[in-house]
């Protein structure tokens, strides 16, 4: 089933278009969660802490694919909106090739320096070995993981979001099945979890290359064109346009690393394990907003290319309502089920369960408002203003949240670290409101007579 980028989007069509991307990112977000569940239950909290310590660093590299994909999808959609379909296919091909090469080179470099990276992150003793094993196996699949991240955006630009959903379901099933086999059945521990994740990423990155490169299989509006030469200005434009998504993603990873460093000091290994579980839930929640934004960015980009300001304004108004309702519902669920969620992962340790429950209840309040800030960044990506988009994303994590992670524990004690994200999100929302007012006036300040 295809979803066209053109035409008017009411609430029903908006949700119908966004749901496949939301489902796709949701399923992708369960990779580390599934690993964490099996490792925690069948290996113990040291293995759980190890994968939670390394996963943010792994995502620093995978986010390169998200940057190319999100910025590239908006660029490709704009070119399509201008009526140049052949050109859009060539740009699409260049960006996929670029993502694969960058993924290979960055993964190889990370694998060589894995012990040093693990040591920088605070690993020692038994945890050090587990960190190195997990990250090196994951790095073997980094080219495919980066492409999988990129294709999450390109599926919508190709007007085939359901294909992305089906691929995510397939990868999720492969990941869960292999985790059960390798960790539970064969007793491979952390290495088994890494192999399960890596092989599922190979599936997620390789299949779309086969699909978009086959004239027999491909029914979308984008195709991979063999022999396309690299046109670096378009690669640069895609990367700069998707810089906000990259900054947002790596900022989350960097902030997670800083959380772990602080938590090792404040709570020890239990703090890292509790934060890891908290992040599993937060990643799933954030995936809902990320998936929505991945769907909306090429739609906004298309109407920007078509110079349809009225439709852009309509998309903004409706998105604020959709995201607000979703945020309230998600926060209520987290507050009601915080204890059962903690028990699923670490019910074997009463103290760790209590710490995790408290962390969830405090931290997850941020989802009442964070969706609006995330959407503001995606909106500017669709409007081809990657600089403002990056400023919003950078300030959210690297300025406000990172600052609060180090400051609030000094002011409020150990529990201050769980409140850091809430204070940061309030500051970010105020900034994003001003950025939209200042740099997208046509959307919030109609001209006289309109």
Explain what the structure shows.
The model has no long low-confidence stretch (mean pLDDT 85). The chain has helices spanning 11-28, 30-42, 45-81, 85-112, 114-120, 125-139, 142-157, 161-185, 189-212, 232-241, 243-266, 269-305, 309-336, 338-346, 350-363, 370-382, 386-412, 416-439, 441-444. Helix 3 runs parallel beside helix 12 and helix 13 (309-336) packs antiparallel against helix 16 (370-382). The chain contains 19 helices and no strands. By secondary structure, the chain is mainly α.
Helix content: over 70%
The low-confidence runs, each spanning 5 or more residues with pLDDT under 50, are: none
* Number of E-type strands: 0
Number of helices: 19
Give the end-to-end Cα distance, rounded to a whole number of Å: 36 Å
Largest sheet, in brief, is: none
SSE pattern, N- to C-terminal:
HHHHHHHHHHHHHHHHHHH
Q: What class do helices, strands and sheet pairing give?
A: mainly alpha
Silhouette:
globular
Proportion in β-strands: under 5%
The Rg value, from CA coordinates, equals 21 Å
Mean pLDDT: 85
């Amino acid at each position: 089933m295809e979803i066209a980028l053109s035409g008017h989007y009411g609430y029903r069509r908006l949700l119908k278009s966004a749901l496949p991307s939301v489902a796709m990112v949701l399923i992708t977000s369960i990779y580390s969660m599934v690993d964490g569940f099996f490792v925690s239950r069948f290996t113990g909290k040291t293995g759980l802490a190890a994968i939670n310590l390394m996963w943010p660093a792994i995502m620093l590299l995978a986010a390169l694919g998200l940057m190319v994909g999100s910025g590239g999808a908006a660029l490709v959609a704009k070119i399509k909106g201008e009526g140049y379909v052949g050109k859009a296919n060539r740009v699409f091909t260049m960006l996929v090739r670029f993502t694969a090469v960058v993924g290979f080179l960055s993964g190889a470099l990370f694998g060589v320096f894995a012990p040093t990276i693990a040591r920088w992150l605070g690993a020692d003793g038994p945890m050090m070995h587990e960190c190195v094993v997990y990250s090196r196996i994951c790095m073997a699949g980094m080219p495919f993981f980066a492409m999988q991240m990129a294709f999450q955006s390109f599926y919508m630009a190709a007007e085939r979001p359901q294909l992305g959903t089906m691929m995510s379901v397939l990868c999720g099933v492969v990941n869960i099945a292999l985790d059960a086999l390798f960790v539970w059945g064969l007793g491979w521990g952390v290495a088994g979890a890494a192999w399960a994740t890596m092989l599922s990423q190979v599936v997620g990155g390789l299949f779309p290359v086969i699909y978009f490169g086959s004239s027999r299989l491909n029914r979308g509006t984008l195709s991979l064109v063999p022999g396309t030469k690299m046109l670096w200005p378009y690669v640069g434009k895609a990367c700069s346009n998707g810089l906000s998504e990259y900054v947002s993603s790596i900022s989350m990873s960097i902030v997670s690393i800083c959380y772990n460093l602080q938590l090792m000091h404040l709570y020890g290994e239990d703090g890292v394990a509790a934060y890891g579980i908290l992040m599993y839930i937060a990643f799933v929640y954030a995936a809902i907003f990320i998936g929505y934004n991945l769907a909306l960015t090429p739609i906004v980009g298309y109407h920007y290319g078509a110079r349809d300001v009225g439709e852009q304004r309509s998309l903004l108004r409706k998105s604020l309502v959709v995201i607000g309702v979703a945020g309230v519902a998600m926060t209520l669920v987290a507050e009601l089920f915080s204890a059962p969620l903690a028990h699923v992962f670490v019910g074997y340790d009463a103290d760790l369960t209590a710490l995790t429950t408290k962390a969830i209840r405090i931290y997850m309040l941020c989802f009442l408002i964070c969706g609006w800030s995330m959407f503001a960044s995606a909106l500017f990506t669709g409007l081809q203003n990657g600089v403002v988009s990056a400023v919003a994303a950078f300030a959210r994590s690297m300025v406000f949240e990172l600052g609060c992670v180090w400051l609030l524990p000094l002011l409020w004690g150990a529990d201050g670290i769980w409140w850091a994200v809430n204070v940061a999100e309030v500051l970010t929302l105020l900034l994003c409101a001003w950025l939209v007012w200042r740099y997208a006036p046509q959307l919030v300040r109609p001209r006289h007579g309109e």
